[in-house]
Amino acid sequence: MNRMQKKAVTLSTAAALLLGAGVAQAQELTVTSWGGVLQDAQRKFYFEPYTAESGVKVIEDTWSGGFGTIEAMVTAGNPKWDVVQVEADEHALGCADGMFEKIDWAKIGDKEAFIPGTADDCGVGAVVWSVILAYDGNVLKDHEPKGWADFWDVKTFPGKRAMRRNPKNMLEFALMADGVPATEVYEVLAAPGGVDRAFAKLDELKPDLVWYDSGAQMLQLLVSGEVVMVAGFDGRVNNYNKTEGGNLKLVWPGSIYATDFWVVLKGAQHVSEAMDFLAVASRPENMAKLPTMAPFGLPQKAAADMVPDEYKAVLPTAPANLEGAIPVDVEFWLDNNEELTQRFNAWIGQ
Q1: Domain 27-128+259-312 maps to which CATH number in 3.40.190.10, 3.40.50.1980, 2.20.25.90, 3.60.20.10?
Q2: pLDDT tens-digit map of 327-348
Q3: Residues 1, 9: contact at Cβ < 8 Å?
Q4: How many CB atoms lie within 10 A of CB 108?
């Protein structure tokens, strides 16, 4: 083989290697969400259309939240996840700490198409959801709870209650049960003695509490009758009613709603593909289909308007359901999450 032939072979091999690397890089995209009916709907309306368009296979994973998981993954380098659905405080904290790639809005579309506060350079709004008081209408049919004071009233409503093993929302509900108006909860919580007051109220209910870590566990506790009420996720409850013909009830006043965001982890292997996926997931015609399977509110105005009327009434963004509800105070939890989580976990263990 002469010099020119060797050079041609070398260039051909290098090109093949580069092409192979490019193909390998574009073959898979790892997307992590919360599981359950939400991820089922995302699979149908986001993951599968994206794969059909791009040829890139979506590898799915699930998680239960916690900024420490993201922090450890990004800090170690080469995170195993590309796109993750995170809660509002995880989004804010990760954005402040540089844990996420900058969103390519040129690919995704108009940032102004989203409800204010649900789209920025760190994340793209995915869903709006609520934590809410829920109960089985077939069990509590003679005397129904109306709010968080009833959640604490074990004499009138005997039985166990379920709460998420997380201080966020649970401290707010404790203050509401103690008589604080929903609109003043964060003012009280941030004032001297506010957190102590919330924990003192939780002390009253502690013997009757069961803790859950996932939406599936929360629903199982309620449906099985192990608990009579839950401080739980509206989407899980509404979907059970829809798919299983259940009679679970939601008490909207005093609920706390929040936005989840899609983020791309800093140092992810497939950033370009991740932005393409977010573009597909953010199309109004795709997003508007989500509530037909998973009853979550939508952060994009055009998509919310396109949702069929029969699905709108149970969404946390329905005007009637927003009455008496409050948004989660992201800044409060950004400033206090670590300290209050440590105290909350210690309190549970006492």
Answers
A1: 3.40.190.10
A2: 999 999 989 988 999 999 999 9
A3: yes
A4: 22
